[in-house]
Design brief:
The chain is α/β, with parallel strands linked by helices. It contains eight helices and eight strands.
């Protein structure tokens, strides 16, 4: 019994579709819709290249920024916003929120919101927990701050030692499975890394350059606020 309860709590703290600790925005029943999202930036080496690539295909994405990186790259964070992309809250230091107390969780989210809103001049309304991890209070704190928690349906595994071709193939295959299940795709890739703000994301950029020209012909690319209008 104890083992089963522990397993259930672990699943609830990690699985993107678990609702035991509260609901999150994943993806609606809109097959063909595609939310392209990026975590852990801004990255001064690779985020600008990604912005140029998205602009070339007239695609808007959602960027979940780490607060401590955004304040060091204010002009770049503002450029993301000014290019028409949606900016979300990815905490201040990228901690494991399944282990942080209520006060620390609140500060991680509130401080990031405050800085991002100063940088962009726009309200921040979406939050993705680092690693997808949370505890019972996490989403409640986020909602108290006016934030909609977000998880995903597809994760590109671009932090693993995969080639750009392997990342692109994974994204294409799993997004097709989403469509077959009758739902939209909410994809996580990374333009940065919580370990270093200048991580090498060349394989991610190369993968996006491979799958984006194909998927724009068969999908409607949206930012997350399209699915969560207030």
């Amino acid at each position: 019994m104890v083992a089963a309860a522990s397993a259930g709590c672990f699943y609830a703290s990690l699985a993107p579709d678990s609702t035991l600790f509260g609901r999150a925005l994943t993806a609606p029943a809109k097959p063909g819709d595609f939310a392209l999202t990026f975590d852990d930036g801004p990255n001064p080496a690779w985020t600008p290249q990604l912005l140029d690539l998205l602009a070339a295909h007239n695609v808007r994405a959602t960027f979940f920024l780490v607060g401590q990186f955004a304040v060091k790259q204010r002009a770049l964070a503002r450029r993301v916003h000014d290019a028409g992309h949606l900016i979300g809250n990815h905490t201040w230091t990228h901690p494991n929120l399944a282990r942080t107390g209520k006060a620390q969780t609140h500060n991680e989210l509130a401080d990031t919101n405050s800085e991002l809103e100063q940088i962009t001049g726009a309200p921040i309304r979406f939050f993705r927990p680092p690693f997808g991890l949370r505890r019972p209070a996490t989403f409640a704190i986020a909602r108290e701050l006016g934030l909609t928690p977000v998880t995903w349906t597809v994760i590109g595994n671009d932090w693993k030692p995969l080639t750009a071709e392997e990342i692109a193939a994974r994204v294409t295959s799993l997004s097709q499975k989403d469509r077959q299940r009758g739902q939209a795709t909410n994809l996580v890739l990374h333009d940065g890394s919580h370990r270093t703000p200048t991580a090498d994301r060349s394989r991610t950029i190369a993968a996006v350059s491979q799958f984006l020209p194909k998927l724009v012909k068969s999908h409607r690319f949206v930012t997350l606020d399209t699915w969560n209008r207030r």
